């Protein structure tokens, strides 16, 4: 790891808390909750994290969540992430959570959010990392289930900064959730959506994010450059793209570093993030280091990537300025 990358103050904007479940904690939670796993050692559990596409990744990802049951489980998960983040000099993080992946198997919404919320408060106190929550809807579930989840979140409105959209993109375009996101906007949530790498209809989905949903950010979005007019519009709106190079490398042919270079050259607000670091075995510093090596980035360019992220953070101006 390059020492400059290691020491750089960081901002992480694309991080699924369920994707931070390391095999050690997974085994501990399985024991605690009496959940049977098909493997008994950390090595076997790590070996089971194998996939070569978004869909094959998602299968193991949702199966692993069976060990998360109680409020302390969600607390332990998030506090462990924040401790790791602090060790990489992450100063601020926006953290996705997937409530439907838990409520669908009988874990109440309030168990999930109370555990996460308590970890965020303790994480700032104990580790000095500030963080906010983004509620993600599962796009391969119905719009009705998403709307019900949005309504369920409203009593906790003050604990959630925005909403996102994740899971399997195939056949699940942004416009499927137009009414849900319009309501979320009216409730004061900020809006983002995944436009995963190299999907069917990638540019059409990004276009819907702009024209139908009116997103405040795009998660991944690396195919925006396939359409120069789309890329220009993202630039005009100053929308940030939360790119996850190591994650992209797992589900496609590589980390898409050439795209990151072109985004930098076009002056787009590109940011570097980890997505599901326990599965892709790379936290944000390792992701930055991959891009540094691939593109031979200068220190100024590395600083620019982190400034882009702090600038794009869903924080009041004065709070962002404190980091910049
Ligand atoms: N894409 C879609 N769904 C996800 C992802 C992702 O990158 N990570 C966790 N769930
Ligand atoms: Zn993601």
TrEMBL record:
Q: How is the cofactor bound?
A: Binds 1 zinc ion per subunit.
Q: A GO molecular function for this record?
A: zinc ion binding
Give the EC number(s) listed in the UniProt record: 3.5.4.2
**Tree of life domain:** Bacteria
Keywords of the record = Hydrolase, Metal-binding, Nucleotide metabolism, Zinc
Mind telling me which residues the site (Important for catalytic activity) is annotated on?
A: 220
Gene Ontology biological process terms in this record: adenine catabolic process; hypoxanthine salvage; nucleotide metabolic process
Q: What positions belong to coiled-coil segments?
A: none
Pfam families for the chain:
A_deaminase
> Record's Gene Ontology CC terms?
cytosol
**HAMAP family per the record?**
Adenine_deaminase (MF_01962)
* Function noted in UniProt: Catalyzes the hydrolytic deamination of adenine to hypoxanthine. Plays an important role in the purine salvage pathway and in nitrogen catabolism.
Write the protein's name.
Answer: Adenine deaminase
Q: Organism, per UniProt?
A: Actinomadura rayongensis
Q: Which gene encodes it?
A: add
